[in-house]
UniProtKB/TrEMBL annotation:
Protein's name according to its UniProt entry: Phosphonatase-like hydrolase
Gene3D superfamilies noted in UniProt: HAD superfamily/HAD-like
Record InterPro entries: HAD-like_hydrolase_sf (IPR050155), HAD-like_sf (IPR036412), HAD_sf (IPR023214), PhnX-like (IPR022468)
């Protein structure tokens, strides 16, 4: 079945951010009093690395006791990330914009999705000049609150653009959580990309149907 919708991740897949997601998490931990010499620091950073791609507030709910603490940590993350975006540390990955435009020009809808809050997501898109580039942009808050690896954002993307079936959906991301979200949604094509620092073996182990060097290779794969 032809691909009618491509659901693409942001950081690590279409956007390179020079490690600022990790730096924003470090900023949030420091604001919460968890410094590198704190015994909680190592297990917390391990959990952050293992859940990269998940909703950020979900990560903080796991790390800290109580909703109030999780929200404070999330606010600190957003603050740190916004400062780094404003400092120019984010850029579109080579070929990403062209891939989105090529897909849309061929009649394939494109929805960008992310584990960021809508505020952080919109700041990032504005910094890139990407407002209006995709058919829609989604955060977990736009899909009932559950982020990856749940399928909710992929299924919401289908509803937004009127995709005819899950078999006609392609999901692309750079983390195992991106891959699992696509598989959980039943997407016909689930691809990993190597631009986020995860290896091909890890993405295939998560269940990726294909592993691409970058999202720039997606139009050719969809064409096949």
């Amino acid at each position: 079945m032809p691909v009618s919708l491509a659901v693409l991740d942001l950081a690590g897949t279409t956007v390179t951010d020079a490690g600022i997601v990790e730096d924003a998490f470090a900023h949030a931990l420091a604001r919460m009093g968890v410094t590198p010499d704190d015994p909680r620091h190592a297990p917390m950073t391990e959990h952050i690395s293992a859940t990269m791609g998940e909703s950020k507030i979900s990560v903080f709910r796991h790390l800290f006791d109580g909703e109030e603490a999780a929200q404070r940590a999330n606010e600190a993350f957003e603050e740190g990330y916004a400062q780094m975006v404003a400092a120019g540390r984010c850029a579109a990955l080579p070929g990403a914009r062209q891939a989105i435009e090529t897909l849309r020009g061929a009649g394939c809808a494109v929805v960008l999705n992310t584990g960021f809050s809508p505020r952080t997501r919109d700041d990032l898109l504005a910094s890139l000049g990407w407002n209006g580039l995709a058919d829609a942009v989604l955060s977990p808050a736009d899909a009932g609150g559950r982020g990856r690896p749940y399928p909710d954002m992929v299924l919401t993307a289908m509803l937004r653009v009127g995709a005819p079936s899950v078999a006609s959906v392609a999901v692309v991301g750079d983390t195992p959580h991106d891959i699992r979200a696509g598989l959980n949604a039943g997407a016909g094509l689930v691809a990993g990309v190597l631009t986020g620092g995860r290896g091909a073996g890890e993405l295939r182990e998560a269940g990726a149907h294909h592993v691409l060097d970058s999202v720039a290779d997606l139009p050719a794969l969809v064409g096949r």
